[in-house]
Structure to design on (611 residues):
């Protein structure tokens, strides 16, 4: 990007009718609305400052983007802990949203762990303790019956929302309204990875009570202290919320995230609203993509795959279902595909004849061929099944012990070992242990990032099997195609697209996922796959996209992605348009602060000094 290296005294490329008059007041070349925090940015040129009415309200020096980012990285460097870095970045997002996204886009690998897993886990655990600024919308059970009017308070147009009830935040359990860090973090990635306009994103956290006694006892906790509502109460609440959101924003895409039991809501809303569940479907897709590439390397055909899953919750079952769909595509019958999976939960291997009631979502993969044997521990199950694949979605850090990893290596040329639980403390094993105990044989991906490793003279790069590779493209695809729903085929298509998005040199290095630094390009490929699938399923409403070639569609997608490096061009265009008098000025909300909750006054206010 070209730096904006103007000095305070340099004149700028365009000159406003009143720009050089030190005493000019009431210039028509100003916006007739209050500046937003981003308008005070130090990279704004004088002309822009006058136009935005922030002249004199920021230091006179005019920064280049590079300088701004250098300063931010310097400040980050000074922060001692990751949670301090998280806080600094949150404040930056609130005060200069475009700078925040420039910084994030240019440093996605380094900064994602600070705004997302693992740091967001601690941020959620301490949300009420560290609370400093509004970020998102809270919908309380006490407001049932009035949700539409609460939603009305959100001051911006919305294209996409991420909703959590905080009841299963990463692998950290029920965190109540402290879970807000998750929708905020996911939506930051929507913007950084898929260029969804930050102003058009809405983080929502539902306050449906909590069963976490520590929170209830915590005087600083900012949610209600009532016990978690019943399943029936939750359903009624969600019915009202879905209707109210869609009433206000008819094209809104709604992503469910980190609910303890998300299956009933997915089943209930998936055909009626443009919604999907990230933990079941997004995770299923991202792991399928990595697995498709792992299969190419391991050479084990679908019919010979034996997958043991530690964890049979939303993510475990979601991933198993996507892999089963792939096995069916590879020629297996549904029953043969289903039989490739052995699920293990906190009570041991999931079987039809074990004691106690089996949750509905576990039935599909429940085994009936265990001859009355109940295998309680993962090691017992590994000995019994002799798996080719070991997936971890259990929230149990360290559950893939050295012994289990050694067994995987002894049984397989290239064992697939995916410890996918988040944050890092919950990962079923580290990359280092996986490499050490399988002697470098395993095909590895983890939910949270691990550092690269030197092993026998080779630099090994771990894959990150995290739904962040697909949900941005699923969301953008649904928005651009104006899909009436997000179908299973669209989710599957996102996985196929991701699996093909690797560059030849990435394939050459045996990577399972593309470099995270290329995420915006990858998201274009995923978005195109999702749109094509929506068209095939006839759930799209933007019919003109059907006539585009793939190249044309890619250009179309790119052109609609928010680019934080172009925000100043937008201001310049507004000024030029104003000078020429040929266009009306865009409302401030277009370039304002994404998370600013205070509604902007409309333009009835008279102009102030432009100096
Ligand atoms: N890498 C990624 O992109 C994603 C990772 N996840 C992670 O997966 C984990 C699970 O998420 P969900 O399935 O949504 O949670 P969940 O609460 O629905 O399921 C957890 C499962 O783990 C099982 N489990 C708990 N303790 C166990 C033990 N000692 N031994 C064996 N199994 C045990 C439970 O019985 C349950 O089946 C979380 O840590 C989450 O962060 C979730 C979604 C995406
Ligand atoms: C990544 C994610 O969605 C989770 O850990 O829940
Ligand atoms: Mg999640």
């Amino acid at each position: 990007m070209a730096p904006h290296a103007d000095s305070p005294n340099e004149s700028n490329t365009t000159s406003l009718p009143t720009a050089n008059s030190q005493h000019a007041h009431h210039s028509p070349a100003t916006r007739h609305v209050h500046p937003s925090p981003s308008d005070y940015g130090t990279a704004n040129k004088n002309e822009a400052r006058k136009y935005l009415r922030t002249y004199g309200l920021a230091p006179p020096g005019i920064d280049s983007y590079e300088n701004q980012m250098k300063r931010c990285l310097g400040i980050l460097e000074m922060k001692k802990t990751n949670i301090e870095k998280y806080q600094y970045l949150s404040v930056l997002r609130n005060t200069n949203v475009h700078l925040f996204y420039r910084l994030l886009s240019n440093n996605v690998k380094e900064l994602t762990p600070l705004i997302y897993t693992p740091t967001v886990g601690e941020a959620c655990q301490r949300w009420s303790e560290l609370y400093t600024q509004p970020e998102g919308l809270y919908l309380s059970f006490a407001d049932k019956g009035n949700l539409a009017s609460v939603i009305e308070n959100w001051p911006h147009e919305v294209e996409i929302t991420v909703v959590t009830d905080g009841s299963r935040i990463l692998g950290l359990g029920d965190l109540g309204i402290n879970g807000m860090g998750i929708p905020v973090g996911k939506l930051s990635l929507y913007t950084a990875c898929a260029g969804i306009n930050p102003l058009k994103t809405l983080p929502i956290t539902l306050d449906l009570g909590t069963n976490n006694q520590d929170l209830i006892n915590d005087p600083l906790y900012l949610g209600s202290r009532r016990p978690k509502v019943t399943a029936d109460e939750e359903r009624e609440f969600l019915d009202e919320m879905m209707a109210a959101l869609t009433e206000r924003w008819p094209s809104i895409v709604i992503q469910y995230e980190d609910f303890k039991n998300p299956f009933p809501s997915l089943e209930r809303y998936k055909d009626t609203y443009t919604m999907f569940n990230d933990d079941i479907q997004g995770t299923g897709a991202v792991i399928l993509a990595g697995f498709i590439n792992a299969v190419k390397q391991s050479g084990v055909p679908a019919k010979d795959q034996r997958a043991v899953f530690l964890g049979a919750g939303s993510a475990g079952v979601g991933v198993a279902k996507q892999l089963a769909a792939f096995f069916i595509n590879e020629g297996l019958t549904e029953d043969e595909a289903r039989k490739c999976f052995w699920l293990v939960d906190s009570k041991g291997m999931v079987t039809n004849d074990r004691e106690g009631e089996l949750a509905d979502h576990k039935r599909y993969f429940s085994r009936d061929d265990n001859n009355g044997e109940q295998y309680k521990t993962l090691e017992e199950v590994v000995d019994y099944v002799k798996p080719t694949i070991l997936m971890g979605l259990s929230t149990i850090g360290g559950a893939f012990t050295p012994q289990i990893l050694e067994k995987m290596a002894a049984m397989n040329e290239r064992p697939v070992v995916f410890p996918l639980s988040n944050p890092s403390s919950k990962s079923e094993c580290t990359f280092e242990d996986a490499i050490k105990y399988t002697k470098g044989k395993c095909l590895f991906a983890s939910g949270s990032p691990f550092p690269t490793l030197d092993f026998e003279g080779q630099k090994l790069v771990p894959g990150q099997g995290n739904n962040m590779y697909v949900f941005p493209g699923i969301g953008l695809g649904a928005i651009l195609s104006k899909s009436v729903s997000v179908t299973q085929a669209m989710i599957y298509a996102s996985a196929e697209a991701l699996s093909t998005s690797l560059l030849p040199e990435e394939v050459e290095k045996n990577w399972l996922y593309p470099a995270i630094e290329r995420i915006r390009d990858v998201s274009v490929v995923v978005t195109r796959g999702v749109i094509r699938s929506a068209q095939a399923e006839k759930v799209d409403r933007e019919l003109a996209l059907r006539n585009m070639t793939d190249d044309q569609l890619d250009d179309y997608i790119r052109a609609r992605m928010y680019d934080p490096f172009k925000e100043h061009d937008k201001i310049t265009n507004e000024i030029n348009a104003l000078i020429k008098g040929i266009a009306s000025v865009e409302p401030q909300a277009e370039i304002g602060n994404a998370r600013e909750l205070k509604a902007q006054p409309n333009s009835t206010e008279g102009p102030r000094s432009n100096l």
Residues 56 and 211 are 51 Å apart (CA to CA). The chain is about 40% helix and 10% strand. Residues 278-298 form the longest helix (21 residues).
